[in-house]
Design goal:
The chain is α/β, with parallel strands linked by helices. The chain has 11 helices and 15 strands. The C terminus is likely disordered.
């Protein structure tokens, strides 16, 4: 069966995570594609920082962008905790019984999961975060669905687009997502290109995109965008935004909410 480019590259990453190295010859045989096609994949993926080419194959690039220690989940989880809790409480106000929610693998979404864990409300929650799923499974009122894909060690998330078919069978009312950076030009941006690919697919299918962005990420750029400003329905942050962001957000029909009530009221007009 013919594989799409994304599926083929997902499989390459799966094998690399399992074996740490792979040859063109063995992958060509397994996947039923030409060695020339795989060499093109390897060259592209090396430029993306996902692997390193070797003679006749490739190895996992442990130094790739997105897996640096400062970007690991354990490190990010300990940053700006108070702000993330405030944002998650604000996000909680939007949720209604029997909705289907999507929580990404961000540390901010994990804080929202901790709030959802305490509710008696019946909800379906789809997630790409391992920690998020483990947190939510303790509440019997929640149906928790994991999106399939490649599991990474330092981000504790699902990567790649292997689980897209599952997303086509689910109606997502709200996607709660954070980002490594947010700019008015590029919207929500992240550093791990395989997470970005999956987030793009989820964003296409969500009825509403709720951006959970603490002030440390405002005005910061990252590797790639997964949702433009005009794609976002609500932006929740912990601090008042500068005038330019507010005006651009209003022009794009984005509802901006701050954890500071006075600032929130001012933005909504």
């Amino acid at each position: 069966m013919k594989m799409f480019v994304s599926e083929r590259r997902d499989r390459i990453m799966e094998v690399l995570h399992e074996k740490k190295r792979v040859t063109v010859k063995e992958l060509a045989s397994e996947m039923g594609v030409s060695e020339a096609t795989l060499r093109t994949d390897f060259n592209t993926m090396e430029k993306m920082g996902l692997l390193k080419r070797t003679h006749g194959g490739a190895i996992l690039d442990d130094e790739k962008p997105g897996l640096e220690p400062e970007n690991s989940f354990d490190v990010r989880q300990k940053k700006n905790i108070e702000e993330k809790v405030k944002i998650s409480l604000k996000a909680l106000e939007l949720i209604q019984p029997k909705q289907c929610l999507m929580l990404d693998a961000s540390s901010t979404a994990l804080e929202l999961a901790k709030q959802l864990k305490q509710l008696s409300m019946r909800l379906t929650v789809v997630t790409t975060g391992l920690h998020t799923a483990l947190e939510l499974k303790e509440n019997p009122n929640l149906i928790v669905i994991m999106v399939g894909g490649v599991v990474t060690s330092r981000s504790s998330s699902i990567e790649g687009t292997l689980g897209i078919e599952l997303l086509d069978s689910i109606n997502i009312d709200m996607m709660f997502t954070s980002a490594n950076g947010f700019t008015v030009e590029n919207g929500l941006e992240d550093f791990n290109l395989y997470e970005v690919a999956l987030k793009k697919e989820i964003a296409k299918r969500a009825a509403n995109i709720i951006a959970l962005v603490d002030s440390s990420k405002l005005g910061k750029s990252s590797s790639a965008s997964f949702a433009k400003l005009e794609d976002v329905d609500k932006l929740i942050t912990d601090a008042p935004l500068d005038h330019e962001i507010i005006q651009k957000a209003l022009s794009a029909n984005v509802d901006v909410r701050s954890t500071e009530e006075s600032a929130s009221a001012a933005v909504r007009g």
